[in-house]
């Protein structure tokens, strides 16, 4: 097992009818910017519940954060905070809204005029405090210190990480997910699944505790995905998905492990260039990365086959290949396509995708740092 250090200060408040806890969790004198995405947060009454729970605190609303939070939109929220002299932010939504709020919190205290430098790696020294009311389980952003932001005018999608952007708290009421469209629910299952395997299907470091956590979470997702596709109103399954998605990316299962993240790096370009849902880009790229890195990942893929899919074979390579097939079949069972052609993308798209990787310097990817631009092109070609 590798050496590690773990820190996670986010308070989790999980369960039904917990939005009222905002009255205790948000400072009494706070001047709050409530940030959300589309109209559903308004239409289903969540924003009204939030405003009511905040009581006499000064509240300003900012809606319209996109499914992949757009840099130029978020800058408007930064300006609004300054104009209204606000000092606290509340994210109401899923990973995109939370990621957007992390950027807003950081940019508000960022001295340089060009706030995109945050995404280029300029270290943060301070950020506004914020909390979360989670309504879409998928990204784990409610309990981690990372965010992914898009800049459509430049065709870019980049991430940043800082311990200064951990949420102070996250309220997680599974009832708030009952109104989600099937597409968003299935995206959440796939997103969580790939988050787990990017930290698990790498090298055997002897991190048995982390492996067991990862395998358990994967087995939960294999159960709740089909269950929610068949019965979207199943609240126990909604609860399991919400908590599994959080644990998939709160830092716990990476401890002692070597992580990959090449699938995300390549997948981000499909969203930046073509607007494909983040989770669906991962479903496209993941089998290609596993096939390209089969020799290096064979042992962990075979372990996953035995422990997660209950496959049996004495041939490790055969078992690893069967695990890739089973994973792709699982995505298909959720109605999630896994080929570029399913999104009307052909061979001519690959140079554009690779050029975008070059634009952001995304080379030497993966746990062995051996997925370069040529390898990325081969992986994408295998997914046509």
Automatic annotation (TrEMBL):
Q: Which SUPFAM superfamilies match?
A: Dehydroquinate synthase-like
Listed cofactors: Fe cation
Q: What do the Gene Ontology cellular component annotations say?
A: cytosol
Q: Which Pfam families match?
A: ADH_Fe_C, Fe-ADH
Q: Where is the Alcohol dehydrogenase iron-type/glycerol dehydrogenase GldA domain?
A: 9-174
Q: Which GO terms describe its molecular function?
A: alcohol dehydrogenase (NADP+) activity; butanol dehydrogenase (NAD+) activity; metal ion binding; methylglyoxal reductase (NADPH) (acetol producing) activity
Report which superkingdom the organism of origin falls in.
Bacteria
Q: Which UniProt keywords apply?
A: Oxidoreductase
Q: Which residues form the Fe-containing alcohol dehydrogenase-like C-terminal domain?
A: 186-355
Q: Which InterPro entries match?
A: ADH_Fe/GldA (IPR001670), ADH_Fe_C (IPR056798), ADH_Fe_CS (IPR018211), BDH-like (IPR044731)
Q: What family is this? A: Belongs to the iron-containing alcohol dehydrogenase family.
What name does this protein carry? NADH-dependent alcohol dehydrogenase
Organism in which the protein naturally occurs: Psittacicella gerlachiana
